[in-house]
Amino acid sequence: MVAGFIAEFSYRAGFLIEAGMTAVCAVVVFLKLPESRPAVAVSQGAREDVVGLGAVLRDKRYMGVVGLSFLVALVFQQGSVGLPVAMGQAGFTPADYGMAIAVNGVLIVALQIPVTRFIERRDPRRLLVVSSLLAGYGLGLTAFAGSVGVFALTVCVWTLGEMVNAPTQTGLVVRLSPVHGRGRYQGVYTLSWSLAALVAPLMSGVVIDRFGAEWLWGVCAVVGTVAAVGYGALMRRIPTTAGAATVPVAAGAEVAAG
């Protein structure tokens, strides 16, 4: 919300403030965040198995999760890529977009921990299916928005999907990753979000220029549906137990990545 008002004054100021805040965050992490890598006992003369990138890519079940994560991330990215462009074309100001997208941060700050507590013992398969549908159709509803208030309501829908998806998806990734190769597995999972961040602006730009913003929101609904069907099929082959795919509530939803 603040960024929208700063942008009307100076984009340069916004970027400089962002850089300063990120630098402060880096210093705090360096000084205060303890190492979290699990200690692995290795007997004398034994060598810990090395997990290379090829091993991760050959893990078909895990790569299925990564692929579905890419689809969901592609949808979430449109909240910060396609939405401001579409609102700008419709005559809304940067401050209007800031007001609408601020709902995302407010809801996550206020509800992420209670939502995570509520879903932590529920079926992860259903949670991933529902969150994908909320993401896809939440962005899809943007096609019918004509005011800042309605845009904010659509943000509420896909933000709920984000709050459900983030801890469930992260927990699933952790559960499918071997302890001695968790860093490599987590890296490939994170790459799905980075790849989505690359593809999303290309996708939104082409679709909006050639067909209009309404088509972009329709594509989001379709992609969300495909991801939901994929999770439903994939999770049938992954044994689950109550609460198996959950993580500590501190994980939260990925506001910036989403």
Explained architecture:
There is one protein chain. The model is unreliable at 43-47 and 242-258 (pLDDT under 50). The protein has ten helices and no strands. It has 258 residues and is mainly alpha-helical. The protein has one domain (59-251): Growth Hormone, Chain: A, CATH 1.20.1250.20. It is globular, with a radius of gyration of 20 Å. The longest helix is centred in the middle third of the chain and has 29 residues, at 148-176. It has helices at 2-9, 11-32, 53-57, 60-77, 82-89, 94-119, 124-140, 148-176, 182-210, 213-234.
Q: Residue-averaged pLDDT, rounded?
A: 86
What is the helical fraction, as a range of percent?
A: over 70%
The fold-level CATH name is Growth Hormone, Chain: A
What overall form do the CA principal axes indicate? globular
Rg to the nearest angstrom?
A: 20 Å
Give the termini separation. Answer: 16 Å
Element-level helix/strand string? HHHHHHHHHH
CATH class: Mainly Alpha
Q: What characteristics describe this protein?
A:
258 residues; Growth Hormone, Chain: A; 0% strand
Q: In short, what is this structure?
A:
This protein is mainly alpha-helical and 258 residues long.
How would you summarize the topology of this molecule?
Blueprint: H1 2-9, H2 11-32, H3 53-57, H4 60-77, H5 82-89, H6 94-119, H7 124-140, H8 148-176, H9 182-210, H10 213-234
Helix pairs in contact: 1-2, 1-6, 4-8, 4-9, 4-10, 6-8, 7-8, 7-10, 9-10
